Amino acid sequence: MGATNCPETPRQKMIGMMYLFYTALLALNVSNEVIEAFIYVNESLQTTAINYREKSVQVYNEISVAYNQQPDKFEYQWKKAKEIHSASDSLYGFIEDIKLAVIRYSNGDDTTNSITYVKKQDDINAAKEIMTAEMGQKLGWQLEQEVIKYRELLLGVVSDTSGSGKFLKNSINAALATEPRKDKYDDSAKPWPETLTAGMPLVATYALLTKLQSDLRNIETDMYSYLIGDAERLDIKISELEALVAAPGAVMPGSRFYGRVFIGAKDTTMTPKIWVTYDGEPFYDSTKVNGKWEFSKNPNKKYHLLKLDDTGAGEIDTTFGASGSFGGLAVYESNLGEIIRPFKHKYSVGSSSGAITPTKMMVLYAGLDNPIQFAASGGADSRPVLRGPHIIRQVGNTAIVKPPASAVGSTITLTVDAVGEDGTTTRGDSQSFRVLAVPPPKIAFDVFGDGAELPLEWVINRKLEADAPDDFVFEGATYNVVSFTVRIAIPGAKPELIQVNGNSIASDPSAANRVRSIARSGTAVQFAMVNINSSSGLIPNRAGVTIIIQ
Q: What mean pLDDT is predicted for residues 103-120?
């Protein structure tokens, strides 16, 4: 404070020290406006985390329902979903514990449960003492290890390295990044835990931890959606394959017997081999391995390889003089290995009863024309008649059954009768059918698939298309996209989510303008949460495609 040639007095030195101390206090002081801004941001992030949680629970429950309906198909997806669910809740809870530890340390009590009630929200020491200080609890360093462990768990589940899988991996690495970071004031990078506390008021660290919780819930939801899509990429679209027999249940003595044996819900790219024996039961050997039945030929039986017709069904064309039965094995080569399914069928010669093909996979699809073949025998002058709900027409021994969308999930029963020329009716067999919705469609962006690179205006004006899966054998299934969500990745910020009504971004002008304002060359535009009207009703929240802006 004094000149070099005029030594300072003790009083001047004291005044100088007080001035420097006051200046330091002013530098450390954080304005009320900044504190209030951080509190507002924290509340917004907490609301976002709650919303993401609701979505994650919804998709998680979809996997649970799918597993309960088709455990073989969704066993891996359900196992991984439970593992991710447990790890997500554990990490979320650990972050919450750190937040409580920090604010309680600052307040000097064990009861504070919200940043709102902290006395000194601009405290710059509390977070550091709890999270990174050498003599503290070092919870920040523990958090770094837990985030790394959680990130590696998620990356290990994503096997797809292109399209949606590549996009998801990038999202995981961005949201859960723990690399050392530089700021514009430092030449050297700080460890990630220190970037959460260094030089920050308590309220800022609290908000950053809440953001990490929000990002965690968002990634958790994306992981569940990926697992559902992963199951649908399998070549086999159902968990159970049954060998079906289409044949009359009764024939007159000496008359010719004609029937077909085929695989239900088959994949048209795979051709089965069907072996049949007429040597009596057992028609095949069966062994239970790891809780599942495996089937093979019986060495004491003589088998015949059936000729396949144009539809891939094995043809039985022979004569029977007396009632009996036959059976065998249908062998199906798939990407999952060799699948073998047994079949057997009883027939009666001279019986007056009717028959409908007996099988565990007798299903009807709501909103479609389902062809049913049937036969009955009550005498030389009788004709078969099928009775039951939703029959719209029948000619000869073929009928078309068309259940409405409201019948999905129900069971209907059809009965075949033999009706003579004089009106005499002989009651035949009955068969129950489950009414199912048509399967989820394949989704493409116009003619472009996942990962295509297109100009921005193409992306805005082209339509999102939904079509029947290639392996769905029924004709007439219709699918129409009615709405979807556009998800745009923004470096260093939360992804932008834009709700669109219609089948293109252009159908919603406000959405189109928003996409134009934020999409740039190299931006990934994901079409997600696609809602589709189908022949069997609404199919909600389907995974779409990801397009890269040129």
A: 87
